[in-house]
Amino acid sequence: MTKNDYERFLYKIDQLNKLVELIKESPSKYNLIIKCETHQEVVELAKKWGYEIGKRWGEY
């Protein structure tokens, strides 16, 4: 893992943790996320909320 990959890895974790906190604090967002049927739907919904979780840490 390169230093750049490591930074992307940490960024992804940070984005996921922030997304989890947002969902915990908002029953309406929780209801929306549990209705997603695919990974891509979750990624798109998170993007609407301002989180970038679609790329894997090793993807450029």
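the 2nd protein, sequnce then structure:
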Amino acid sequence: MTDSAQAELEKSQEVENQRLEAQKHAQKMRVPVDNSKSKCVDGGYQEDQEVGAMAIPGGDLGVSMALLRVGYSPAEAFSLVKNFVVDRGGKYSWHSDTHAEPSGHDEHEDHDHEHHHDKPVVGCGHCNAAISQAEQYGVKSEDVSTLLSTIRNEQDNMNLVVLDREHEEKAILVVTSSDFTVKPWDQEDNNQYFIYDANRHQQFLKEFVAELAKNGKNQVNGQEVTFDSLWAASQEQTNATLGLLKSSKGKPMFTVDVSSEIPEVKLAGFAPVIEAH
């Protein structure tokens, strides 16, 4: 066997071991969905935090970022998502972490202008990367910063979770089931995974775009905003984050169906690798 063939075999065996580990995690951490709220794909939610919430890049903040991509202003991108979520009985959900938030931080204080250069602007990698690598997200850095400031200053019907974790995610689990999902962090065994509720994300965006159309809010810069255009913007930004973040780039991605108690886990590929500029 050639060296390259041996290396390929070892890699395939490693990936199979990772798939089996992911399957074990999915079976242990399987929970019913809670469609009243969202959270980020971050693996740092503790076992009792946001259980069953729809896991999508950036949470509701990520949906607002996709609206920036299709042409809405920061104010519109925030208010349209917030109003939709609140009308459904939820709260606008986003997150930061203890690396970005000073001790005793008031979640409603706008501290962007006091931000220290050695800390991330916000502890959400999806948003933080869009500020520093805006061209990869099809947005303007200042628009994302304005969106973040708007969110920080809003007090009503907001849900901020400040994660206390280090990034130790082993892989990206793309959950395809709609009635059950997977908790990201098994604290007993200290296993972390990125969790992305792909099908639930699509359904959310379809319902959101339908509501925009109903209220006459689906036109921006003379163009109609459709599910396809918003989904494409969201996927573009998701792939940018996967490729830019050290904690995710190049890692295996598995589709996970937890409709039944025995999960079906398949290799879907690997996260892209994008060099920051």
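The CA atoms of residues 3 and 52 lie 45 Å apart. Residues 104-117 have pLDDT under 50 and may be disordered.
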